[in-house]
């Protein structure tokens, strides 16, 4: 299993597919075997996983595995203890209440790099920094959480996933490094990757393409053989006199119209 850690810069799309308007992950990492596990939005910065292990993304993002992701967040305004307590208890969003988060007010760190472009500055409104850890992976969740408690996010940097710490790796924006998974306890419980096994398909009889059809056993032949073994005839195997007649309660009028039916 190969794992590469990238410090994604601001304004970079979390994808390998080229984009005319923005830089992408492929501008920094060119290994064709790697896939992205744990996306970051265009306007977010920091730690992203690149791996060749197919199940790592699900393992990291599934809340049941309790793999906390830590973010350094600059918010608009001087964040209050009441707002932090709301984050710790869970915030009601449009897609439901969030799981309890870890939230603490912190000072601006010394290791922090300059963002390009810089965050807007307003002299009459202060900003503050919060460290938030969550184990969910909803779309733009941290931004929606801080906005819901009255302090919109101005800058967001993911610094940690599990025990992997971007600060300790000392990666600057755009830099990446391959790590040894065995050195991190987070990867000891990852299930072995199973190769993808496609379902068996057959094409429609006489067809040259189109949507493939699932291959099925010939149930009709199987049922026919079972009927023959049991001695029970199917209706089309019966002679005219053997076919069952419809029973009525005596009030049904006789059918005098053939309607194309075969006379009995």
Automatic annotation (TrEMBL):
Gene3D superfamilies: Alpha-L RNA-binding motif, Pseudouridine synthase I, catalytic domain, N-terminal subdomain. It holds the Pfam family PseudoU_synth_2. GO terms for molecular function: RNA binding; rRNA pseudouridine synthase activity. It comes from the Bacteria. Keywords: Isomerase. InterPro entries: PsdUridine_s_RsuA/RluB/E/F_cat, PsdUridine_synth_cat_dom_sf, PsdUridine_synth_RsuA/RluA, PsdUridine_synth_RsuA/RluB/E/F, PsdUridine_synth_RsuA/RluB_CS, RsuA_PseudoU_synthase, TruA/RsuA/RluB/E/F_N. Residues 3-148 form the Pseudouridine synthase RsuA/RluA-like domain. CDD domains: PseudoU_synth_RluE. One of its GO terms (cellular component) is cytosol. Residues 218-229 have a biased composition (Basic and acidic residues). GO terms for biological process: enzyme-directed rRNA pseudouridine synthesis. Its EC number is 5.4.99.-. It is an enzyme of class 5 (isomerase). Residues 200-264 are annotated as: Disordered. Belongs to the pseudouridine synthase RsuA family. This is Pseudouridine synthase. It comes from Acinetobacter populi.
């Amino acid at each position: 299993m190969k794992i590469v850690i990238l410090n994604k810069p601001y304004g970079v799309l979390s994808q390998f597919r080229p984009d005319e308007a923005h830089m992408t992950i492929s501008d920094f990492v060119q290994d064709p075997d790697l896939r992205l596990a744990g996306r970051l939005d265009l306007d977010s910065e920091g730690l992203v996983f690149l791996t060749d292990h197919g199940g790592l993304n699900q393992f990291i993002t599934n809340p049941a595995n309790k793999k906390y992701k830590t973010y350094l967040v600059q918010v608009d305004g001087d964040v209050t203890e009441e707002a932090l307590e709301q984050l710790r208890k869970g915030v009601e969003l449009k897609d439901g209440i969030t799981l309890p988060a870890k939230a603490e007010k912190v000072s601006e760190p010394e290791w922090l790099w300059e963002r390009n472009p810089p965050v807007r500055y307003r002299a009459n409104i202060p900003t503050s920094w919060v460290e938030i850890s969550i184990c969910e992976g909803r779309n733009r969740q941290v931004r929606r959480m801080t906005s819901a408690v009255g302090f919109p996010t101005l800058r967001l940097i993911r610094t940690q996933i599990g025990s992997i710490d971007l600060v300790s790796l000392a990666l600057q924006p755009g830099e990446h490094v391959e790590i040894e998974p065995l050195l991190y306890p987070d990867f000891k419980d990852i299930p072995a990757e199973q190769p993808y096994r496609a379902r068996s398909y057959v094409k429609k009889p006489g067809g040259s393409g189109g949507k493939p059809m699932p291959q099925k056993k010939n149930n009709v032949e199987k049922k026919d053989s079972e009927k023959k073994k049991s001695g029970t005839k199917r209706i089309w195997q019966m002679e005219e006199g053997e076919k069952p007649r419809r029973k009525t309660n005596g009030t049904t009028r006789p059918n005098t119209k053939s309607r194309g039916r075969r006379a009995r």
